[in-house]
Amino acid sequence: MTDSTHAVVAGTRRAGPRSGSDRVRLVRGDVLVGAVAAAFTLVQLLLVRPGMGLGWDESVYVSQVSGHAPAAYFSAPRARGVPLLVAPVASWSSSTVLLRVYLALLSGVALYLALRVWRHAFRPGVLALAGALFASLWVTLFYGPQAMPNYWVAIGALVCAGCCLRVRADRRDRAALWGLAGGAALMALMRPMDAVWVALPLLALVLLERHWKPLAVLLAGLVAGAAEWVIEAYVAYGGLFQRLSDGSAIQGGLGWHLAVADQLRSLGGRALCRPCTGAQPNPAVTAWWYVLPLLALLGLALAVRARRTPPTLVAVTCAATAAFPYLFMIGYAAPRFLLPAYALLAIPAADALLQLVRTPNGSWRPLALSLAALGLAGHLAVQYDVLAQTVHRTTVDHRAWSGTAAALHRLGVRPPCLLTGEAAIPIAFYTGCGSAAVSGPNANSTPGAIERAARRLPVAALTTADGTPPAYARTWPSHRFGDLRLYVAPQARTDTGP
């Protein structure tokens, strides 16, 4: 984008009504970005099977609002944003397919709206390519239709940063002020600490420029989104600092941890890399992870040279602060943790990529265009391969949980019931039972309480095939199913009927 074009785009609101050509350009840009968002939704539905079943964390979030099973223990680091997000479907339907379709559609609409916020600063082609780069990552496609918070933190980060820049350009832009508050609230509602890290550069920007109104709006959004989490800390976790301390302990103790290599290992399709051991994936799988920040930094250098630094600098710095705790402060990795950073880096990376393949007068550079197209084709092939393997592996795991639930039903463990032990939380959701643990991050009961429960309702203790049952379950009838052994309290009558 030339300086003159940028000035026209950034100044349209101040200059008065847009010209006909401006409106046509904006409409075409919206259509282009909308097409990318629609393709994102469609690819999710085609490649990430709606019938895949719910994962471990998903079962915790969905159980908070679902009538299918009692609410699972809600550990200190979790926030209530995802239960609110899924409530319109999960509160009345137990269909995973319906929930996946709802989230896929919602994620596509959200991507469109979040990219549209940036159209004052970047050309439609840049935003469409940025959306395509972000949406084509296997981790984005995999988590877009899932009941998990990280994609929504990424959307909130895009909206919050983009609206902050709009307010900086025009303090009378009321829509941008609402977007600034809404984006901050969305992040804080999903993951309060992530919201703080993303917002740090924005807080610094408005403080340095003494823009008190956007500062107040940004802080109000963060407070509004985190309010429930803070109140719940005092009601159920012994106070805010205790909840933060418990959350840190559950995550292995926050401090200096070099997790860059762990994040690289997770890129091969590992949903959770804890402990994160084993060989690194094939370099072809991790190449994009190096290229994306390099392209973003090139985009920043080009923006500085063109004297349109702020939008690119804000995107890069917010991405850096969003990524920092997950690269240097946590002792394990999950690819979804860095989704906000990927979303923000995609915009300057797309800007740089388009400038590499086009001359200043707008004509294509054939060699650069061919190399970029070849690289993107290889990138898409790798992302599809990792996604397909991850979806297959995840589907197999979820079907195993569903099969265990069916086996428990045949053994008489039906709602109201209680499960404890190996993978009790997700299997309990599939079975329609409550779950209990006497140790670990999800500890919410005692052996005595579980024994008492076994006198009045069906209870089962799950172990690995060669595992040792808890003392209270050693005399319970044992049943082998797959990789698990099911110890069923004798009060649970075996159903031998059809």
Roughly what percent helix? 55-70%
Low-confidence region ranges: 1-17, 494-498
Total number of distinct structural domains? 2
Order of helices and strands: HHHHHHHHHHHHHHHHHHEHEHEEE
Class from helix and strand fractions: mainly alpha
Shape: globular
State the helix count: 20
Note the gap between the termini.
Answer: 70 Å
Give the rounded overall mean pLDDT.
92
Biggest sheet descriptor:
5 strands, mixed
**In percent, how much strand structure appears in the residues?**
under 5%
Specify Rg, calculated over alpha carbons.
Answer: 25 Å
Per DSSP E runs of 2 or more residues, the count of β-strands stands at 5
Spatial order of strands in the largest sheet: 2-1-3-5-4
How would you sum up this structure, described in words?
With 498 residues, the chain is mostly helical. The chain has two domains: 3-357, no CATH class; 395-488, no CATH class. Helix content is 64%, strand content 4%. It contains 20 helices and five strands. The protein has helices at 3-10, 12-15, 20-47, 56-63, 81-90, 96-116, 124-135, 138-143, 150-169, 174-190, 192-208, 212-236, 240-250, 260-266, 283-305, 309-328, 339-357, 366-410, 424-431, 447-454; strands at 418-421, 434-436, 459-464, 478-481, 484-488. A five-stranded mixed β-sheet has the order 2-1-3-5-4. Helix 19 links the parallel strand 1 (418-421) and strand 2 (434-436). Helix 7 packs across helix 17 and helix 15 packs across helix 17 (339-357). The longest helix has 45 residues, at 366-410. The chain is globular. The termini are far apart. The model is unreliable at 1-17 and 494-498 (pLDDT under 50).
